[in-house]
Amino acid sequence: MDKFILNIIHRPELVPEYIEKTAASGKTEDVSRQEVISESLDIFKLQQKIAHDCGFKTTIQMTYSSLLDEQAVNLVKHDSEKYGDEIGMTFIGLTCKDFRERFKTKEIAIWLFSMEDKKKITDFMFSRFKQAFGFYPRSIGAYYLDAELVSYIKHKYPEVHCAVATCWEEGPKAYRNANNSWYTFLDGGPFNPWIPSKSNIHCPAVDESDDIGIVAIPHLSRDLLAVFDGPGSFFGTHPQNIMRGLVYKGEKIPYLYNLIDQYKSLKQYNKGYSYNMIFVGPGWMSKSGRWEAPYELLVKNYENCMAYYADLKKKNEIEDKTMSEFALWFREHKPYKEPCCALWKDILFGSEKQLFWYVDPYFRVAIDMNQGGAIVDLRPYAAKLERPVGVGTKHIQDASYPYIIQSFYRAGFFTHYAGEGAIKSCTIEYNGEEVDLCTCRTQAHFKEKNGLRILSLNDVEIEFKDLTIKVASQFELCEGSGEIIITRKITEISDPGASLIINEYLTGCYGTTEYPEDLTGVVLSGTSRGNKKKKEIKYAYKCREQVIADVDTVQAVIPQIASKLTLFPVDTTAEGYFREGYAFSPMFTIGLKKSCKYKEEYRSCLRVEKED
Description:
Oligomer: single chain
Structural class: alpha+beta
Helix content: 10-25%
CATH architecture of the largest domain: Alpha-Beta Barrel
Number of strands: 28
CATH superfamily of the largest domain: Uncharacterised protein PF12979, DUF3863
Number of domains: 2
Distance between the termini: 39 Å
Shape: globular
Strand content: 25-35%
């Protein structure tokens, strides 16, 4: 396969907040203000023209207000007939007079309503869509669509095949960056298209019985390193995000081109397939400008973006599809358990930093080569957590999928106190000295072999007081198993007779924000290999620890998120241990220690499972 697929999505959002606030400067709020509607429709026409002039067809997602506007409906019908554009629908853009009067609310986000209200809004919009176009949409979208609502839509409107279902990494970082006013916590999902589970929209389905019935795509293709480190709304293939992130100079936007190219390069990690999307509304090209950028520059920015895609199309290096066309293709070519991988390099600052991302139905994981191959993000998809959101649920605004490891939210290796942060890493011990691989920068290389995705890291050099060694690390991610096999090997040593202790450890917790959750109820345990004797600690913040000399497995069961982590040695003996934290260091740790010499390999396995 050699496919780089592009979705271009536009929406005639007739009352975008960005333009309404500008037009209403010094006036009372009026979401029916005609100058806002006229300007929005003009910009939508321009966006459509730019894409069509470059030879692309688009997916047009009708907003609530545009479904009620005869001019918008006729314009979209024309473009669909002439250019082959797909007419879909989006729940973005509920800020209009009719909506507020009909549903008696100023709420703007579909996922925040009660389930009863979600159904009422959905049925009204689908009915109005059918009235306008004579058919139901095959694609829909929002910033986030929860599994409960998608299941309802798919059951009642089976014509729907594809949905913009979540924003990638729009969590606390986005909230902080929006002056603590963006009450949407949506991170923890896949970064590329997936078939969602019936249980949770973030989780890829494990098989047909778990399939919710649509193909999901993320809202924008993000920079998988810059967005993990910082705000998601600055670094994506939305051209005006580039303006907001100030990642441009004059009319030149090389960062955007590099971002598109890096998405194109993901073919080498995904059996020849890669994907990219652009999803824009008219508010981003306000005629009064946005941020410090004038309207003319915003338009030029979008023209340059489309021209770059057009150049790739002329070279037969990209194929544009509508959303529903893509969904049909995806189902034909991507098996449920086939993972999505990305070995991502830093294109924002030009450093040598790399992150490796892996997503399958069992977990999402990020491995940071700048920290010696530490796991810095782990989401237990195997649990298939049902977490309804919106009014009337326990998680009204928080739609994020919980983490077990998230090093930015929960400190990671570099803590400022004597406690521990959430991370999976390895220490090397010799004569009372200890070095954590988190302090060793390296680079990685990828290959696929017999169902394994193998990440091999360059050797790192470690200097003790009277010994120098080099250590190689390798990660084997086993398709369809929920397992990661980690191999450490001492490849060079200044004293071939020396013996070292390699300590594989995982320090974790759970949560969706920076704030700690109650770990009471977490159970840590270990079983010996010979007599199968079991030890355990029921978490009570008492800083207790247990050691098992000849270990079979060590485990952490987290009932709050129905997840179980297991660490065990592979084809070798090791010492196991587990310990609870304390209130100022609310973590747990499970680990394996083994004595190793020159050229010996130490293999261990991390398994992620659902705990019933």
